[in-house]
């Protein structure tokens, strides 16, 4: 039977489990919550900064200078898709989250 790969030498990308760490991660610039619109990025819920951070090999790159500013329309689209108010980034009440 083949032996499982050694974690130290396994080069496969690691999946990022946002749900497991969502309460621990914040935007390093605005200190606001982050949402995970796709497996490769995190987005700050701050409407002023609107920063997107990369997730590389399952590791969020949350360095202050590594964020890319989203335009207002793109940020609002992400907030809506994540059940958040598109003008404030705050969570919407459950009954308002669905279209």
Spans of at least 5 consecutive residues with low confidence: none
- Can you tell me the CATH topology of the domain at 18-83? N-terminal domain of TfIIb
- The N- and C-terminal alpha carbons lie at a distance of 51 Å
Please tell me how large the radius of gyration is.
Answer: 16 Å
Indicate the CATH architecture of the domain at 18-83: Single Sheet
**What proportion of the residues form beta strands (DSSP E)?**
15-25%
Task: Specify the structural class.
Answer: alpha+beta
> What series of H and E elements makes up the topology?
HEEEEEHH
Q: Biggest β-sheet, characterized?
A: 5 strands, antiparallel
- The helix content, as a percent range, equals 10-25%
Mean pLDDT value: 90
Global outline: elongated
Region (Disordered): 79-99
Could you walk me through the main structural features you see in this protein, from its secondary elements to its overall organization?
Residues 79-99 are annotated as: Disordered. The chain has helices at 18-21, 72-81, 94-97; strands spanning 34-38, 41-44, 51-56, 59-60, 68-69. With 99 residues, it is of the alpha+beta class. It has a domain at 18-83: N-terminal domain of TfIIb (Single Sheet), CATH 2.20.25. Strands 1, 2, 3, 4 and 5 form a 5-stranded antiparallel beta sheet that branches. The radius of gyration is 16 Å and the shape is elongated. The model has no long low-confidence stretch (mean pLDDT 90).
